[in-house]
Write a structure and sequence with these properties.
- The chain is α+β, with helices and mostly antiparallel strands.
- It folds into 2 domains: 167 residues, Alpha-Beta Complex (Penicillin-binding protein 2a (Domain 2)); 338 residues, 3-Layer(aba) Sandwich (Beta-lactamase), CATH 3.40.710.10.
- Helices cover 33% and strands 24% of the residues.
- The protein has 20 helices and 25 strands.
- Strands 4, 5, 6, 7 and 12 form a 5-stranded mixed beta sheet that branches. Strands 14-13-25-24-23 form a 5-stranded antiparallel beta sheet, sandwiched between helices.
- α11 packs across α17 and α12 crosses α14.
- The radius of gyration is 34 Å and the shape is elongated.
- The relative contact order is 0.10.
- The N terminus and C terminus are likely disordered.
- It holds the Pfam family Transpeptidase.
- It is a single-pass membrane protein.
- One of its GO terms (molecular function) is penicillin binding.
């Protein structure tokens, strides 16, 4: 084999030399192709384009990405994106000969002509190259402007968010800004899922900057992913309508309501009042956007009393047959606990039916602080419900190591602890599903991976039976009844906190209930803030709205009645 000497004086085989020459040849061919392409684009193609029109050129433009839909649990669209056009102008390119075209353009866009001309002159004098004339307009309107064929006026394809249900789901969904970026609600909380990735394409533009031909896609736009919620649009509408009626009838400051699936913690509806329409947000303050059911916290009042009774029974601190003396007042150190009336001696059922502060205080004081606090903590008080909603409340629950003696008493009748409507509804799953507390979710799932037992099954069922008496004519929530169904629930009438104490004339009217009581399917929690029409008790203000929403939900889902034998009695008492 012949040996040659390479450039550095090292021996090389003839095979190696041949391979190196072939590689050099391939590189030269590739470089020639690239140079040829560049010459074509920069010289030949440019000349060709110029032959076809004044200053035609190749440009790279962005391709907008489609934002993912938000759907309810049945696939009904709650938020969709529709294609629109935006119009902008390069003031430096406007020609004097085309000034007369500004008059019809201003009319088409609803832009005061004098104002438009003044703005264009200002931008041109400042040597600006970009000014939006209108964003996200109907393509038909944009087409009329395009027909005017004005040099320096450009058109950009975008997407505009539309909410088919309008105000019904506004507080939950939130909205996007004009650049299609989530600003509130689920749109903001799940921006990383919904937002797509824009692409790029090479196009041919004419001398006026209009795209006349697509050349090639450089990078495909990646659409955002759809978001499927647990919300049922049918139940959402029912809840919205009845909550709005409750607020108006009671001349309330605000109101909020949550509907849960008692078996798995799915949020079927969440509404707040006053409402806002995300399709039309002109002249609305940010206060109207707030989802009160998720982000506001309040003291739940007597709605926590069932948990006190359940905790004491479960821990063996009281007997199911215990009788408790009340007699109108109970002294605890220097503090006095009072009831609205002197209820005398009460069994556990009547403790809840009459909502006795004195009785529930005595029950609470039988339990060690650590155990009592532990039950409240397991129920989720003091911890965010974790549904991924921006700004959702955690509420407050003071650590038992910092309690004074009276703190345990006030906690037993719902003061000194705060919660959101969602958290309160969630806590009731521990009574509705035979002692199992469910996590709550806004995103559709197959099962609850975080369910945990808080009470024994027999304890939850016993307390649920007691809560049915709250709905009786002798109880505090007779207006919460639903014909044909057994209902269990608890009222709360809470004085609002203020600096230095509590108000004497401002209340929260609260009700939480479940049905059918024999095997609950739904839980509804409702809060009406500052009713001013005369009534303020939870059983008179919140319970009627609960009844109507629950009746509708049971009907929509075809839940079998469990109280048919009492239907005629309910009808006769109306």
């Amino acid at each position: 084999m012949r040996i040659t000497t390479g450039a550095v004086g090292l021996p090389q085989s003839s095979d190696f030399v041949i391979r190196r020459r072939m590689l050099l040849t391939l590189m030269l061919v590739a470089m020639s192709a690239l140079i040829g392409r560049a010459v074509y684009l920069q010289v030949l193609d440019k000349e060709f384009l110029q032959d076809k029109g004044d200053m035609q050129h190749i440009d790279i433009v962005p391709v907008p990405a489609y934002r993912g839909q938000i759907q309810d649990r049945n696939g009904e669209p709650l938020a969709i994106s529709t294609p629109v056009q935006s119009i902008w102008v390069n003031p430096r390119q406007l020609k004097d000969a085309e000034q007369d075209k500004l008059t019809p353009m201003a009319k088409i866009l609803g832009y005061p002509e004098k104002e438009l001309r003044a703005q264009l002159k200002k931008e041109k004098d400042a040597n600006k190259r970009f000014l939006y004339l209108r964003r996200q307009i109907n393509p038909d309107v944009a087409e009329k402007v395009k027909e005017l064929d004005i040099t320096g006026v450009y058109f950009e394809r975008e997407f505009k968010r539309y909410y088919p249900a309008g105000a019904v789901s506004g507080h939950l969904l939130g909205f996007t800004n004009i650049d299609d970026v989530g600003q509130e609600g689920m749109e903001h909380g799940y921006e990383h899922i919904l937002r797509g990735q824009p692409g790029k394409k090479r196009v041919i533009k004419d001398g006026k900057g209009q795209i006349i031909k697509d050349v090639e896609n450089i990078e495909e736009a990646v659409p955002g992913r759809d978001l499927v919620l647990t919300i049922d649009e049918r139940i959402q509408y029912l809840a919205y309508r009845e909550l709005q009626n409750a607020m108006l009838q009671n001349k309330a400051h605000s109101a909020s309501l949550v509907v849960l699936d008692a078996k798995n913690g799915d949020v079927l509806a969440t509404v707040s009042q006053p409402a806002f329409n995300p399709n039309n947000r002109k002249e609305l303050s940010s206060n109207r956007y707030r989802n009160r059911a998720m982000v506001d916290s309040f003291e739940p009042g007597s709605t926590v009393k069932p948990f006190v009774v359940a905790a004491a029974l479960d821990g063996g601190y009281i007997s199911p047959n215990v009788m408790i003396e009340t007699h109108g007042a109970y002294h605890l150190g220097r503090n006095v606990v009072k009831d609205v009336h002197n209820y005398g001696t009460l069994d556990l059922t009547h403790v809840l039916q009459k909502s006795s502060n004195i009785a529930v205080t005595q029950i609470a004081m039988t339990m060690p602080p650590e155990y009592f606090w532990g039950i409240y903590s397991k129920l989720g008080f003091g911890t965010s419900a974790g549904v991924g909603f921006p700004g959702e409340a955690s509420g407050t629950l003071l650590d038992y190591q910092n309690w004074h003696e009276f703190d345990q008493a006030t906690l037993s009748f719902g003061y000194g602890v705060s919660t959101s409507v969602l958290q309160l509804a969630r806590a009731y799953t521990a009574l509705a599903d035979d002692g199992v507390l469910h996590s709550v979710t806004l995103l559709k799932r197959d099962e609850d991976p975080d369910a945990q037992r808080v009470f024994k099954p027999e304890t939850a069922r016993r307390v649920r039976d007691m809560l049915e008496h709250v709905i009786s004519k002798e109880g505090t929530a007779y207006q919460a009844r639903v014909e044909g169904y057994r209902v269990a629930g608890k009222t709360g009438t809470v004085k609002k906190a203020m600096a230095g104490g509590y108000t004497e004339d401002k209340y929260l009217s609260v009700f939480v209930g479940m049905a059918p009581a024999s095997n609950p399917r739904f839980i509804i929690a409702i809060v009406v803030d500052e009713p001013t029409s005369g009534q303020y008790y939870g059983g008179l203000v919140a319970a009627p709205a609960f009844s109507r929403v629950m009746a509708g939900a049971l009907r929509v889902y075809g839940v079998e009645p469990d109280g048919v034998d009492t239907m005629h009695l309910l009808l006769s008492k109306r």
